[in-house]
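tool_call predict_complex ligand=magnesium ion
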Amino acid sequence: MGGSSSTQVTMLGLDSAGKTTCLYRLKFGQYTESRPTVGFNCEKIQVENSSGKTSNFTVWDVGGHDKTRPLWKSYCRKSDGIIYVVDSTDKERLEEAKVELVKILKAPEIAGLPVVILANKQDLPGSLSGSDVESVLAMRELPTSQLWHVEPTCGVTGEGLEEAVEKIADLIEKKRKGKRKR
Ligand code: G3D
Ligand code: MG
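tool_result ok
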């Protein structure tokens, strides 16, 4: 652990789930941000923790009519894990988020990557709890080989975000160890 190792994490979710807000809250260690000047929503941030381990986050909006799909898929090929952000207050769009998640996890570029779901906007009244989000997204119906975790978060206060980043790092490590054993 630590040293010069770095992980690539792709953050995905429907627009307005809170990806950008969460990213801006992830300020531990060094924090640099760049917004490509291209005409679609892609952000990259590098986060360095106290032990010098860096995590590179690339963030994309996903959705039914998303023309950038081939692009984010090719990013996922270089990724070690996925963070998938949902708006826990928007019950209708949680259905859409589920459909997209199932598609994403089936894509050959992504199949087998660990995923952490951010059940975001926990501060708002009427938001579904982490375990309710887990049921709506039918996480337990995913293949048993899929590593996943649901973390309740608030992008505004930052609650749950460090835990989520630690969790994705854990799952990535678990996946690597599992591969080595085989
Ligand atoms: P996106 O990058 O996934 O598209 P954004 O989403 O980060 O732009 O967030 C969309 C809106 O949701 C923003 O509000 C943002 O402030 C709000 N938001 C994000 N996370 C949370 C949260 O945890 N709690 C609350 N209450 N709001 C959140 P606006 O009003 O700017 O559209
Ligand atoms: Mg955004």
